[in-house]
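hey m, so remember when u said the tokens were messed up on ur end? i reran from scratch. heres the input so u can diff it against urs
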Amino acid sequence: MARFSVKIAKSDGRSIIELADAEAGTAAKIACDLGFNCCSFVKKLPDGPGEYIYSSPEFLAAGRGVFGSGIPILFPFPNRIKGGLFTFAGKEIAVPKNEGGRNAIHGLVAEKPWQLLATDTSAAALATGRIDTAAQPELLAAWPLPFALEVTYRLAGDTLAMEAVMKNPGPGVLPCGFGTHGYFTLPGQETVERISLAAPVGKRWKLDNLIPTGELEPLPPEDADLPKGVAIGKRSFDTVYGAIAFEAGRAACSLAAGARRLTLGIDATTRVLVIYTPPHRRSIAIEPYTCVTDAFNLAARGVDGGAYFLAPGAEARTMMTLTVA
């Protein structure tokens, strides 16, 4: 029996890519028709399969709850653009205001079908997907700047890796940023109250109605021990953190409860970590971004929030890993 496998299945009429490592007892599911969202990552444990990613029951069944399930992919911008407007190259870009008519939020690709480009099982269970404005030109109505995005998931052992490649296929410069909005849990935990969280952050972005002002401020006392780990308890988060402490270009967040643990690894392309507790408290979102919220408007004010401005033909890469125990 082969160690690695990739299968294409149907669930409620949707294409689901199933990655598995039989030797490690790990498996992941990716909803190709719903934003290439990794909506499940399980490991065989002594008492049965343990799930580390939270997804709403309605996600696959009805295609609802996309931004509250699995690992939504946020591109060409993560989080919010204030008022759905920014100016670039002397032109005002208006992005649909899908946050109650106030702001644009969470990019344009998380609810779209993706093309499955490739699979492989030689050294891992691997699947690569792509979305671009050439195949879906209606995206240009919301973002009048051609783009392409390729994402690869690679499962081997207890680690699921994601690599994203942002590409500019157009004739002009492409402003963009990438993020993920993963909802994580630990086996045996109905809520996050008994889970501890560690994040290697040193400051947080000052916010005005969830939009950064452009200033970084010191961590408040309740966050001072985040790098070492804090009990989530009854705390609620909706915080944009910065000043990430990297060692040799790498850093990691973690969730832990008893013997169960999830470690989210990032590289130095991550400029921001957003941490968010949804109202149901059955999961916690840890969101690595290549740029801060509203990065294009900040850039216009001379504030470096990590926005990419890709030249024609250029590309940028970012990655994260999930390791479970």
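this time it looks ok to me. The mean pLDDT is 97. if urs says something different then somethings off w ur setup not the seq
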